Amino acid sequence: MQAIQVEQLLGCYGTEIYRYCRRLTGFGPDGEDLYQQTFLRMLELDLTADESRSPRALLYSVATGLWHNEARKRRRRAAIARPVELDGEAPPPLAGGEEPEAAALAEAERAALAAAVERLPDKYRAAVLLVYGAELPLAEAARALKLPQGTVKSRLHKARLLLKKEMEASGYGRQEL
């Protein structure tokens, strides 16, 4: 792909792909690396622009493929020596315009749900992030994951069940009488 085409893709979808990469990798510097690797890979690929296929889905597919490869490397390395996490990243600040108590409760619920999504197995997390986070249509998400649509649907269903179970166990979603 030519640099001008990649630059256009970066302008159109750069922010969206950046958010996806950060969420996929757990909001660390690995997300920024994955983002850069995605667009570098687009430069390396010998593709021509095809209007019938979504360039957005192609970007998600490349990012997901790179992430899978990196996850495999990390699993092999972890089998040799256990990694040690040195520090974490602070959560984003509260949004303005809401009542402080309501804002704090909403932020706590969002944080709990985001943490629950991060704890999902990789195959479920990728499907959830593509369909619900990036709002890709099911067909494009299936193409990005290189899976049949039925498999993506079943992974989404299983992920929703796991998330519901975890959120209810944490006290969210119960109606108090």
Notes on the structure:
Helix 1 runs antiparallel to helix 2 and helix 6 crosses helix 7 (149-169). The chain has helices spanning 3-25, 29-44, 55-80, 100-119, 122-133, 138-145, 149-169. The model has no long low-confidence stretch (mean pLDDT 82). The protein has 7 helices and no strands.
Report a brief summary of the structure.
The chain has 177 residues and is an all-alpha fold. The protein contains seven helices and no strands. It has helices spanning 3-25, 29-44, 55-80, 100-119, 122-133, 138-145, 149-169.
Please, what is the oligomeric state? Answer: single chain
Order of helices and strands: HHHHHHH
Distance between the termini: 60 Å
Give the amount of beta strand, in percent: under 5%
Category from helices, strands and their pairing:
mainly alpha
Please give the largest β-sheet: none
Principal-axis shape: globular
Radius of gyration over alpha carbons?
18 Å
- Average pLDDT metric: 82
